[in-house]
């Protein structure tokens, strides 16, 4: 039987070990997520998850950690910052129609393996102290209400755009969890500080934030460019601008990001000049080049056809220039019907 005093000391050690492994914050949450599950059920009932059937497939396991991992008593939640502070550069890219905009988190190495490896090392450190214990590591890899758990662990509050916000770090960070059977002392949940601000709602290009704390994924550019495997609804295409993988507008507009402390991580430095590349350059990648360049990158998730579909939409929204028209013409006879359809739409925009 582990004594409470031992758990208090262990919790302090876990925070220290987490910092040594590069996490900017570590907190501990309980497992009661009943109120958040009510919100999730309503969101699913309204069909606002779009084609993400996996959101509903696992039922209430998202809100019941003890069912996902039997024996779970606590969740260790960690924050890993990736923001660079170059928000002005991001806005500048969005303003240049021939350049490609990629969500800041996807410019460098895929965060999943990076964080999972560090979380596993943290679990190993805990085991070395306590002996074998029950746990499971998660990084966006299972039915986990990670933002609700992070809020309850004191890492930040859920903003009106549904991203987690931290007073010192803004919202440019990743989250990860360790579900554990250790009866660790829990942290106080974070309080909310959005106040009357609605900048994230007002700036959303497609109006996806349909109400405070509610995003209709079917209109969200991140969903449209990453999750959706079908044709992008025509009425939303002109609103997407040059965003070809994800969207950051709601975070760029958030006042809490303006003065956030940044932590430079070499792994998240831009690869393949994705922070400056033109749409035409990226559209020219054949499948083998796409696979080679996106190795170890979150971008590979779109697949080559999805990549071309997204860029075709952006080229349709770009200024009419010889380079843009030539790029589109080069894919007019692409073997994938979805790509051809989006290319035809884009060419028609320029006519």
From TrEMBL:
Gene Ontology annotations for the cellular component aspect, listed alphabetically: cytoplasm
Cofactor list: cob(II)alamin; [4Fe-4S] cluster
GO molecular function: 4 iron, 4 sulfur cluster binding; cobalamin binding; epoxyqueuosine reductase activity; metal ion binding
Keywords assigned by UniProt, alphabetized: 4Fe-4S, Cobalamin, Cobalt, Cytoplasm, Iron, Iron-sulfur, Metal-binding, Oxidoreductase, Queuosine biosynthesis, tRNA processing
Residue ranges annotated for the 4Fe-4S ferredoxin-type domain, each copy included: 182-214
Intracellular or extracellular location(s): Cytoplasm
Binding site for [4Fe-4S] cluster 1: 194, 197, 200, 254
Catalysed conversion reaction: epoxyqueuosine(34) in tRNA + AH2 = queuosine(34) in tRNA + A + H2O
Residues bound to [4Fe-4S] cluster 2: 204, 220, 247, 250
Assembly notes: Monomer.
Function field: Catalyzes the conversion of epoxyqueuosine (oQ) to queuosine (Q), which is a hypermodified base found in the wobble positions of tRNA(Asp), tRNA(Asn), tRNA(His) and tRNA(Tyr).
Record's protein name: Epoxyqueuosine reductase
């Amino acid at each position: 039987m582990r004594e409470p005093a031992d758990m208090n000391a262990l919790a302090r050690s876990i925070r220290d070990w987490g910092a040594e492994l590069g996490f900017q914050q570590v907190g501990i949450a309980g497992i009661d997520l009943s109120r958040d599950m009510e919100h999730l059920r309503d969101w699913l009932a309204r069909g606002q998850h779009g084609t993400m059937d996996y959101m509903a497939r696992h039922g209430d396991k998202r809100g019941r950690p003890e069912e996902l991992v039997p024996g779970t008593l606590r969740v260790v939640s960690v924050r890993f910052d990736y923001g660079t502070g170059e928000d002005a550069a991001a806005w500048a890219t969005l303003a240049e129609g021939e350049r490609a905009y990629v969500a800041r988190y996807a410019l460098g190495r895929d965060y999943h393996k990076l964080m999972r490896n560090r979380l596993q090392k943290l679990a190993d450190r805990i085991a070395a102290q306590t002996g074998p214990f029950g746990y499971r590591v998660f990084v966006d890899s299972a039915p986990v209400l990670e933002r609700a758990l992070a809020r309850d662990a004191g890492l930040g509050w859920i903003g009106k755009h549904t991203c987690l916000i931290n007073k010192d770090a803004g919202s440019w960070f990743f989250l990860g969890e360790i579900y554990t059977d250790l009866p660790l002392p829990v942290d106080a949940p974070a309080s909310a500080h959005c106040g009357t601000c609605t900048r994230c709602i007002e700036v959303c290009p497609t109006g996806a934030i349909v109400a405070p704390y509610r995003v209709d994924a079917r209109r969200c550019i991140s969903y449209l460019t990453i999750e959706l495997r079908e044709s992008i609804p025509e009425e939303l295409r002109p609103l997407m601008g040059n965003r070809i993988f994800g969207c950051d507008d709601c975070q760029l507009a958030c006042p809490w990001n303006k003065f956030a402390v940044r932590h430079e991580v070499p792994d998240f430095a831009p690869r393949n000049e994705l922070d400056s590349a033109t749409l035409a350059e990226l559209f020219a990648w054949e499948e083998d080049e796409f696979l080679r360049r996106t190795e170890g990158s979150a971008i590979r998730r779109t697949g080559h056809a999805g990549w071309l579909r997204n860029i075709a939409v952006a080229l349709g929204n770009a200024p009419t220039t010889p380079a843009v028209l030539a790029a589109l013409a080069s894919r007019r006879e692409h073997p994938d019907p979805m790509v051809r359809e989006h290319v035809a739409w884009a060419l028609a925009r320029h006519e």
